[in-house]
Amino acid sequence: MNEDTFNMTVRKFLKNVGVTSQREIEKAVDEALRSGKLKGNESLSARMTLEVNELGLKEEINGKINLE
Questions:
Q1: N or C: which end of the chain has fewer CB within 10 A?
Q2: Contact 50, 62 (CB under 8 A)
């Protein structure tokens, strides 16, 4: 295994996950605020699931997103 290649591709994947996730969350919150579904002072429960099928890895990461 090439450690440099492995580390670089893991970091690239995680960067893509972070950027895409933030963009999608921001878009969904914006739409919910405009539609009145959210007031803007909520705390949202969030869950992300990481899966790597070839490794049998399935990890859930839970957290909160505060709007205020």
A1: N
A2: no
Distance (Å, whole) CA 41 – CA 64 = 13
Task: State pTM to two decimals.
Answer: 0.89
Binning pLDDT at 50, 70 and 90, where does residue 54 land? very high
User: CA 9 to CA 17: how far, in whole Å?
Assistant: 12
- Among 11, 13, 33, 10, which Cα is nearest to 21's? 13
Q: Which residues of 27-66 are buried (b: 16+ CB within 10 A; e: fewer)?
A: eebeebeeeeebeeebeeeeeeeeeeeeeeeeeeeeeeee
- What whole-number percentage of the chain has pLDDT above 70? 100
